[in-house]
């Protein structure tokens, strides 16, 4: 079931850390300790969702969050999906595909005409999931919603 995160509290932060455990582990060395990292992430998430052109979604199963992503409207009708991640214990069960399909339907309902995402060339699982959801590889440079070129990656697009 799709859930949009609209409030940030201690419980949301704990659940996000569980959901994004692999990504958080990669970032941990950038902070003096885990408390500093949690505080920084909480501030980022709060600021992120306060912007009406930015949303955070999670897919739930068995009363827990199993995958999530962020969506950013970079220009009217053009959205960008980022930070798509499924918890390791819930992979290969279709949850990522459900999440992407639910989010694209939601975005379509609010006027999205185009949805982009950038995927690493070697991330075959993500390429397959996005392709199964109708995304097509483009020949455009992989520039994210922040205007940054992401070398070694591929820009995928869903035209609605």
Overall description:
The chain has 160 residues and is an alpha+beta fold. It is 36% helix and 31% strand. The chain is built from five helices and seven strands, in the order E-H-H-H-E-E-E-H-E-H-E-E. The protein has helices spanning 10-19, 21-27, 34-50, 95-109, 124-132; strands spanning 2-5, 54-61, 64-75, 78-86, 114-120, 136-137, 153-159. A seven-stranded mixed sheet has the order 1-2-3-4-5-7-6, with helices on both faces. A hairpin with a 2-residue loop joins strand 3 and strand 4. The longest helix is centred in the first third of the chain and has 17 residues, at 34-50. The mean pLDDT is 95. It comes from Roseburia intestinalis L1-82. Pfam families: Acetyltransf_1. GO terms for molecular function: acyltransferase activity, transferring groups other than amino-acyl groups. Residues 11-160 form the N-acetyltransferase domain.
The CATH homologous superfamily: Gcn5-related N-acetyltransferase (GNAT)
Shape, per Cα inertia axes: globular
Name the strands of the widest sheet in spatial order: 1-2-3-4-5-7-6
Q: What is the SS-derived class?
A: alpha+beta
Task: Give the helix tally.
Answer: 5
Terminal Cα span: 22 Å
Mean pLDDT across every amino acid position: 95
Taken as a percent bin, the fraction of beta residues is 25-35%
């Amino acid at each position: 079931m799709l859930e949009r995160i609209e409030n940030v509290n201690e419980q949301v932060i704990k659940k996000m850390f569980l959901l994004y455990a692999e990504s958080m582990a990669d970032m941990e060395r950038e902070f003096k300790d885990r408390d500093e990292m949690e505080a920084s992430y909480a501030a980022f998430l709060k600021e992120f969702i306060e912007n009406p052109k930015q949303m955070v979604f999670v897919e739930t199963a068995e009363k827990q969050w199993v995958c999530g992503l962020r969506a950013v409207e970079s220009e009217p009708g053009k959205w960008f999906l980022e930070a798509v991640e499924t918890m390791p214990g819930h992979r290969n069960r279709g949850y990522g595909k459900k999440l992407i399909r639910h989010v694209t339907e939601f975005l379509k309902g609010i006027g999205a005409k185009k949805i982009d995402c950038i995927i690493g060339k070697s991330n075959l699982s993500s390429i397959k999931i996005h392709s199964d959801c109708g995304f097509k590889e483009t020949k455009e440079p992989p520039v994210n919603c922040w205007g940054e070129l992401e070398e070694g990656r591929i820009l995928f697009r869903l035209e609605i």
